[in-house]
Structures are given as structure tokens and as C-alpha cells.
């Protein structure tokens, strides 16, 4: 009986106390500086933008308005291997160490490709390398407009062209679409 009374008394006393909190844990802890991404950039205007051969890297094509900085680059690497790859670069500022998903939407397909902040000529840009056979490249398979988006890096509208699909098909070792005439580097967008 005394034992039961003691339990009832302890329960009553415990009922008078506020519940435990973690407020005490916050005291004395150094506040961590918030880490946030850079301000997003606006989607640029792409009226008159075209694919062109890169003046700096053989076998790479770049996309942009002639005479202005290129916005996108596409290149086939390891073409002679069993598993050729395509490198896509969104030539927009990327926060060091950041990762994102690049979305390609067009020609009846959607492809999402992981990209990372990659150092290119002393600046950090978005870049991803993926197998050429990957179906996520299918949005480039056709003559219609394609949009390319990286969160915070704006949306790039790729004007209708078979140039990117030609690059994908050749990298895969497939029969390419009809031959594409690309502007020479002097008349095209400038590349890093």
C-alpha cells in the first residue's frame, strides 16, 4: 500500500513539472552561418541563337547568339571506347561543390541529368558526363525546340536544330541525321 501511495505521489509531482525541452541545448552552442546558394540568374533571350563548332575544343559544339558568350556546350568523349560518353555543360555560374539536375525537355521526351559545379578556366560552371546510349539524351532527338534548365541558372531555349542530335548519334555510333552545316567559330558564339 505504501508502495502504491509513493507511486501516486511521484506521479502527481511529475505532473506539476513542465515537459523536458531541448532549449537548454541551444545555450552555449556557436551559431552556424547559413549556407545558401547564389542568387539565381534570369533566363537569357535566345532569339537568333545557334549551334556552332567550338573554336577551342575539337569535337565540341557550343550554343549561343553569334558574337556573344556561349551558353551550352556538348562534347563526345571516349568515342573510341565501348562506352562513349557525352559531356554537357551549362556555361553559367555554379556554386563551388554544388550539384543539381539539368532538365532537357523537347521532341516528346524529358531527360534529367545530374550535373555538378566544375572548374572550367578558373570559373565554376554546371557540367555532367553521361553515357551516350542513355535515353535521357532523347529530348535532343528531333528538329523541334528544346529547353534546358538548371535550377538557379535560368532556362535556355535551344532553337530547332538537328545539330545536337547529330552529336549524340555520332557519339553513339548510330547513323546520324542528314548532315548538319554548322557555322564556323568566327561567326558563332564565343566559347570559354
Shape verdict: globular
Number of strands: 9
Level of helix content? 10-25%
Give the count of structural domains.
1
Integer average pLDDT:
80
CATH hierarchy: architecture: Sandwich
Radius of gyration: 27 Å
CATH fold-level label: Immunoglobulin-like
Q: What is the strand content?
A: 25-35%
End-to-end Cα distance, whole Å, is: 86 Å
Query: How many strands, what sense, and barrel or not for the largest sheet?
Result: 9 strands, antiparallel
Strand-and-helix sequence, N→C? HHEEEEEEEEEH
Strand order of the largest sheet: 1-2-3-4-7-6-5-8-9
How would you briefly describe this protein structure?
This protein has 192 residues and is an alpha+beta fold.
Structure characterization notes:
- With 192 residues, the chain is an alpha+beta fold.
- It has helices at 2-16, 23-26, 163-172, and strands at 50-53, 60-64, 72-77, 85-93, 99-106, 109-120, 123-131, 146-149, 155-158.
- It has one domain: Immunoglobulin-like.
- 15% of the residues lie in helices and 32% in strands.
- A nine-stranded antiparallel beta sheet has the order 1-2-3-4-7-6-5-8-9, covered by helices on one side.
- The longest helix is centred in the N-terminal third of the chain and has 15 residues, at 2-16.
- The protein is globular.
List keywords for this structure.
192 residues, alpha+beta, Immunoglobulin-like, 15% helix
Amino acid at each position: 500500500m505504501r508502495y502504491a501511495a509513493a507511486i501516486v505521489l511521484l506521479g502527481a509531482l511529475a505532473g506539476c513539472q513542465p515537459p523536458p525541452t531541448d532549449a537548454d541545448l541551444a545555450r552555449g552552442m556557436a551559431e552556424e552561418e547559413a549556407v545558401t546558394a547564389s542568387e539565381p540568374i534570369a533566363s537569357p533571350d535566345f532569339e537568333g541563337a545557334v549551334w556552332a563548332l567550338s573554336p577551342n575544343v575539337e569535337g565540341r559544339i557550343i550554343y549561343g547568339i553569334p558574337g556573344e558568350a556561349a551558353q551550352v556546350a556538348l562534347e563526345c568523349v571516349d568515342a573510341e571506347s565501348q562506352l562513349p560518353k557525352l559531356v554537357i555543360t551549362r556555361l553559367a555560374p555554379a556554386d563551388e561543390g554544388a550539384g543539381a539536375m539539368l532538365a532537357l525537355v523537347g521532341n516528346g521526351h524529358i531527360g534529367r541529368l545530374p550535373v555538378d559545379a566544375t572548374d572550367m578556366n578558373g570559373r565554376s560552371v554546371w557540367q555532367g558526363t553521361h553515357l551516350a546510349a542513355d535515353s535521357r539524351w532523347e529530348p535532343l532527338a528531333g528538329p523541334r525546340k528544346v529547353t534546358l534548365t538548371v535550377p538557379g541558372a535560368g532556362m535556355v531555349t535551344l532553337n530547332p536544330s538537328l545539330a545536337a542530335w547529330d552529336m549524340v548519334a555520332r557519339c553513339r555510333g548510330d547513323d546520324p541525321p542528314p548532315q548538319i552545316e554548322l557555322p564556323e567559330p568566327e561567326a558563332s558564339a564565343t566559347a570559354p
